[in-house]
Amino acid sequence: MRAILEVRNLAKAFGAFQVLEDVAFQVQKGEIVGLLGPNGSGKSTLLNIISGFIAPDKGTVMLDGRDVTSVPTFRIVNEGLARTFQLPIMPQKMSVLEVAMAADTTMHGVLPTLFRGAGFCKAERDTRERAMQLLDELLLTRVMHLPASAISGGQKKLLGIVCALMARPRLLMLDEPTAGVHPNLRQDIVRALHRLNDQGMTLVIVEHDMHFIREACNRCIVLDQGHIVASCKPEELASNERVVQAYLGASVEEARAQIMQKEVA
Ligand SMILES: Nc1ncnc2c1ncn2[C@@H]1O[C@H](COP(=O)(O)OP(=O)(O)O)[C@@H](O)[C@H]1O
Ligand SMILES: [Mg+2]
């Protein structure tokens, strides 16, 4: 079976600092893959390269068998790959609903507000309905008329997911979706992600919360200092020496105890 995402031999340095080296992995259609690793291990850089925000020094990114290395971001979105950001920044003067509507990449997201011709009205209604439905699923209905810059950090993360979903991606990559989100909402996010996965969406999730990883992911890829050190099931993380040492940096016994603790928490 052809992988929906294949990364080959990827390398990236910022100045003299080698952030990623010889990174290679595949994601199969339908998987929910957790991308783990200590702070600074290169997770966000990897997402930035895959989604076309920065170019690698070496290597290839294949989406559904097509080489998309260094292809502009908007084209990659049109190819079916959307992503969210670790620290989302929202426009000052647009409401939550307007931001969600503008993220509709099928063109009729923005145009109808400019050209109010008869042909565009239905498209605008469709975009609005779809945005409202997604805002509802991600529990943002109450704040949809507030300025997008005024909502909480956690709500901005949820709005980031809504925006990514407006593009109807086949592959969705999330950068720390639960960081700053109220713990009560995490279960809702897991449920929403599973629902999307049931509908055929493939997911790659950068996340630190072990409980979330266990609940949400089928497989984990672990980065340490720019190298992939493991690809295993979430329940195998605690028994993988490389992961325990790399991920938590503490003594093995201490680190494993921490992982187990997080798993039962
Ligand atoms: N644009 C950049 N310029 C210089 N250094 C960067 C840049 N982006 C990331 N880095 C550095 O690369 C390393 C990996 O960063 P990042 O990919 O954000 O890690 P992670 O997401 O795993 O925490 C860090 O040391 C970070 O400071
Ligand atoms: Mg990061």
UniProtKB/TrEMBL annotation:
GO terms for molecular function: ATP binding. PANTHER family: CONSERVED COMPONENT OF ABC TRANSPORTER FOR NATURAL AMINO ACIDS, CONSERVED COMPONENT OF ABC TRANSPORTER FOR NATURAL AMINO ACIDS-RELATED. InterPro entries: AAA+_ATPase, ABC_AA/LPS_Transport, ABC_transporter-like_ATP-bd, ABC_transporter-like_CS, P-loop_NTPase. This is ABC transporter ATP-binding protein. Pfam families: ABC_tran. CDD domains: ABC_Mj1267_LivG_branched (cd03219). The keyword Ribonucleoprotein does not apply. Residues 5-250 form the ABC transporter domain. The keyword Transport applies.
